[in-house]
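Instructor's aside before we start: the two examples that follow are unrelated to each other. I chose them only because their records fit on one page, so don't look for a connection. First example below.
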Amino acid sequence: MVQAFTGEHVQKVDRKGRMSVPADYRRTLEGGDPAWTELLTPRLVVVYGQHLKDSLHSFTVQQHDSIVARINALPLGSPDRKRLGHVMITQSQKLDVDRDGRIILPLRMRQKLGIEEGDVYFRGMGDHFEMWKSDTFKATVEEDIDAWLAEMPDGYDPLSILGGT
């Protein structure tokens, strides 16, 4: 079973787009890349589709292949297949992690984040991880979570959303 992407990290991206991928994320990428061996570095698929607004979503090769297969199972020519294909397949790119654990984040993706160089916030989401400009994440996602929790009664357990277990 492939390990999930968890936790949060802040990494620096330089002017050339070089950025370290957190070490625990690299282990998950290795487990989700069918071509990976001890002699090779893992790959990942970064989705930068229009639907993501201020973030990028990164998947293991296997996870992205699974998404592509599900999209391709939709009826040929259907609007949903075309739209999903555009935002999840066309607007994605496979990247290699180098021997030092870095990727080169293409300029187009850095521009989407609104960053040429500086801090990138990584957020593990189980089956994928997100990349955000740190300031944007704080001003949007963190504020949204804070507002949601402020509406809840004292002692609220967020896991209650999942129902009885």
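Example two begins here.
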Amino acid sequence: MDLANGMHDLTRFGLSDTIACSATLRRLGKDKTNMEEVAHAIVDYLYQNLVDTATGEKCCTLVRFFKTHPYQKLPEELRQFVRAKLTGEPCTPMMKCLTLLATVGERPAWNHRQLSQNYKAIPLPNQAIAAKSPMFSQLIAQFGLQFDTVIEPDPELFMQLEQKNYNVFYVGEAVGSPYIPAQRDFVIPFGIKSVLGFGGLLPSSCDLFAIILFSKHHIPRETANLFKPLALSAKLSLLPFVGETIFHPPTVSSVLPT
């Protein structure tokens, strides 16, 4: 149900909500100077506007935006993080890293990507190591992609795949799911019921983007499917920055302890 104040009831999400959200997401790239700003605008919009009208509460505990990014193009602090994560494997220049570009949530530390302790940048040197990240593995599978497409993309094949629409990543029951990590520290104590992700492939850069919502309410499969069109709308806002400025330039005030 699309509400007059621009909010959307995730417990009764319908086609009108898909249309309204899509229109908003397409506009979020306006007046931005880099992809990180767009990503933050996307997650903030979803976090603030997906609500339970019965209680007035936000439906999501946490919303995050990830993008694969080559190691050599990461900021130095993220390259250091990747090197610390990756032991016994070389950090090749074009190695893909699943990079947290934006985050917003209930806890203060969830509102700054620099404060993430485990997910700032996940190195993906090969399929065997990538498969050790269960949520990422399942996301790739449910999107209908192959690991090689994401980790070592063939530019010619990627151009064809980039035009496709992809399925959503959906875990209806988060508690006990092998695909959702941190059960004791996050899923159970914060009452996460369902996890929903949508995204796609970006042209030129051969990168994947994914927006993941951790919901305190159960999301039916029918509702999850209504998020498929939102991927294209988000992509349209991101396109001006593909191959251009990705990260927000660091400032003294934005350099946070890790």
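Confidence is low (pLDDT under 50) at residues 252-258.
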